Amino acid sequence: MGKLEGKVAVVTGAASGIGAGISVAFAKEGATVVLLDLVEESGFSSTVSQIVALGSDHYFTYRCDVADEQQVNEMAIWVSANVGDVDIVVNNAGIFIESSVVDMTTDIWDKVLGVNLRGTFLVTRAFLRSMIERKSGKIVNIASQLAQIGGTEASAYAASKGGVIAFTKSLAREVATLGISVNAIAPGPIKTPLLDGETPEWRERKLAELPIGRFGEVSEVVPTAILLASEDGSYYVGAVLGPNGGDVMN
Fold first, then answer.
1. Does a structural domain hold residue 246?
2. pTM above 0.90, yes or no
């Protein structure tokens, strides 16, 4: 049996990148996975094809803007009615808009925090009450090493992910005695569409800062997500685990 056999997991930002990798890995471990993203149905095809290749049909797709409260609440109702109680939530959906503070518009700030921080809160809240009632659940929030060290032309992103870390630690203190684990992963720069969207100059500058001398692979983040979503990670409370290539050394 897989480590997540019989569990239902909701993964946001599941159409590509880290979210896709986590979704496929969870399916391989036996979970039924609800793939959430803002893409059209065809945008899920890559993740779905990888899950199907495992021989699994235990997946659902749902288009949802995690920054929109009404959409998130409607999604949670749909999941409850069509899939069942959710055991694991992975808040992975995120955006990065490169901008210096002096040139940043309020719209950019609001958009980045809306998806990365507000979205994490809304999706977590949508499933938290049920977890509390069942005294069981795993919440894994994807933060970033930039939340810990900052980044040039990345203040909105770093601030949003710093908020995710603070939210993780605070919620963990609220629910740790109720059978719910809340932890975060703070990856370094990983080869995903998010990283591809940055300028060559930004990527070159970031690469030069990494002790390991390379960007990470999604496959190097996924094992941490499995750990925190499974009983193997049962003693982690409010932890921030960092597969980051040495960008942050704790």
1. no
2. yes
